[in-house]
Design a protein that fits this description.
The structure holds 2 protein chains of 2 kinds.
Chain A (H helix, E strand, L loop, with lengths): L6 H34 L2 H32 L3 H30 L14 H22 L2 H9 L1 H21 L4 H33 L16
Helix pairs in contact in A: 1-2, 1-3, 1-4, 2-3, 3-7, 4-5, 4-6, 4-7, 5-7, 6-7
Chain B lengths: L5 E10 L2 E11 L4 E5 L6 H7 L10 E9 L2 E2 L7 H7 E4 L10 H11 L6 H14 L3 H4 L12 H14 L4 E5 L7 H14 L4 E5 L3 H7 L2 E6 L2 E7 H6 L4 H7 L5
Parallel strand pairs in B: 3-8, 3-9, 6-7, 7-8
Antiparallel strand pairs in B: 1-2, 1-4, 4-5, 9-10
Helix pairs in contact in B: 3-4, 3-6, 4-6, 6-7
The chains are: A mainly alpha, B alpha/beta.
């Protein structure tokens, strides 16, 4: 991409992308780490993830500040303007993803009852899918790559399928083992949190698409197969 | 789509051997303010000056193609250039009031064009023009003072009042704010907005933010060619042409 005549503008844009990449890296690590902590019942790790969310929140504030400064000082136009606005929205969305990771991590100690849930085997696989979505959609943002954004956008279906499978498996399990309802309810929330991370990655894909092309990806056809309790 | 006030088709302008404008076609409507943007030497001012044949005065300049004002060929044999310039007024980069009173600056046009029957009517025309130009309240008690005694921003509004006084259909503005401070600029921009719809306004500006603020249609010129013409909001958020994008985002180089 051609550089701006005012090179300080390019520096601002690079700084903004670096902040988003940093936030994204931390949000991915938080979701992955929360799941590891859950599966291995590592309470210390879970606590670290809860604490680490503050840094993600602080980065969001930094993105906001930088975006306001860029708009005030550089008056960005066209694709620059769309990118800056997208960065602001993406930062807010990544902050939410961080919150979901924190929410998962907080539930780790509640699941130390020693019960074995078959459905638990699906969680790491679902986590891998959503974390990859977040990772790839941010790559798409930094490269202004609309095709890659569409690719991520399409993957949301897989996440919904995972969520539905887990939902059904846990429901069956609860009916058969009423004493497990407490733990299983926590797992339901965790599955829902992961599903929301996928939704947010999909939303970011729409923002990236708009930033890159100037047109909307279109109202996503919401699968009506998403389980609701 | 509304009928165009000015229709330009395949307009090319040459200064001697050098071609300054290449086959430009555009429609200018009264309900929109139209902005011409582009880097220096892109042909935007040259094109603007075709609309009231200001290029006629430049030796060696010639214009081909067709420009119609309400369907009438402005380069046609029966077109009276003096009449044309009354119908298509112009405001320049530097305020250029006549070295006469404020009143005379505005009254001059209507008088030579015979628009007023008597002094009372002329007074009314002067007041109306100054009011529309947003200057009346500031000058009503000093109409006999020299136009050049006003501030730069006031002088520019006086020039707009002078253009309005002959009841034109089109007002051409060539960088009307480049010699003004931000507050005087804001007043002119507000005035342009007030005048929109009454006159077809075409403004040439180097200030892209200004084009974005005052116009509803923007045309981007580059090296004598019209690269892109469309809705201002669309052109500044999602330009179709790569050249437009590079220019408005400051990557032109």
């Amino acid at each position: 991409m051609t550089e701006h005549t005012v090179r300080a503008f390019d520096q601002d844009i690079r700084a903004l992308r670096a902040l988003i990449a940093d936030m994204g890296g931390r949000a991915e690590a938080a979701v992955n780490g929360a799941m590891d902590a859950l599966v291995t019942q590592d309470h210390e790790r879970a606590l670290a993830i809860v604490g680490g969310d503050q840094k993600i929140d602080a980065l969001e504030a930094e993105v906001e500040k930088l975006v306001v400064r860029i708009i005030a000082l550089r008056a960005p136009m066209a694709d620059d303007l769309r990118e800056v606005i997208a960065a602001l929205k993406i930062a807010g969305t990544l902050e939410r993803i961080g919150d979901y990771a924190k929410s998962v991590a907080k539930r780790v100690p509640k699941l130390s009852g020693g019960q074995r849930f078959e459905a638990l085997a699906l969680f790491p696989a679902m986590t891998t899918v959503v974390v990859e979505m977040v990772h790839d959609v941010l790559d798409a943002f930094i490269a202004r790559d609309a095709d890659k954004a569409v690719d991520v956008w399409k993957r949301d279906k897989t996440v919904d399928d995972f969520h539905n499978s887990i939902f059904r498996a846990l429901l069956t399990f609860m009916m058969e083992n009423p004493q497990s309802i407490g733990s299983a309810a926590h797992l339901l929330f965790i599955a829902k949190n992961l599903e929301r991370v996928g939704d947010h990655a999909t939303n970011i894909a729409e923002m990236v698409y708009y930033a890159a092309t100037g047109t909307n990806l279109g109202e996503r056809e919401r699968g009506n197969g998403t389980a609701t309790a | 789509m509304t009928a165009a006030k000015i229709t330009a088709r395949d307009v090319s302008v040459y200064y001697g051997e050098k071609q300054a404008l290449e086959s430009v076609s555009i429609d200018i409507a009264t309900e929109h303010v139209t902005a011409f943007i582009g880097p220096s030497g892109c042909g935007k001012s040259t094109f603007l000056r075709c609309f009231n044949r200001m290029n006629d005065t430049i030796i060696g300049a010639r214009c081909t193609g067709r420009i119609e004002l309400d369907g009438e060929d402005i380069y046609g044999a029966e077109m009276d250039v003096v009449q044309l310039r009354a119908r298509v007024g112009m405001v320049f980069q530097k305020p250029n009031p006549f070295p006469k009173s404020i009143y005379e600056n505005v009254a001059y046009g209507p008088r030579i064009h015979g628009l007023a029957m008597d002094k009372t009517e002329l007074d009314r025309i002067v007041e109306l023009a100054l009011t529309r130009a947003g200057l009346w309240d500031e000058v009503k008690d000093r109409l006999s003072e020299s136009g050049t005694s006003l501030s730069g921003g006031q002088q520019q509004r006086l020039c707009i009042a002078r253009a309005i006084a002959v009841d034109p259909e089109v007002i051409l503005m060539d960088e009307p704010c480049s010699a003004l401070d931000p507050i005087a600029t804001a007043k002119i921009e507000d005035l342009i907005n007030q005048l929109r719809g009454r006159y077809a306004i075409v403004i040439v500006t180097h200030n892209m933010q200004q084009a974005a603020r005052v116009s509803q249609r923007t045309a981007f010129f580059h090296l004598g060619k019209l690269i892109e013409f469309g809705e201002t909001s669309e052109l500044f958020t999602n330009p179709r042409a790569e050249k437009t994008k590079d220019y408005i985002t400051g990557r032109y180089g």
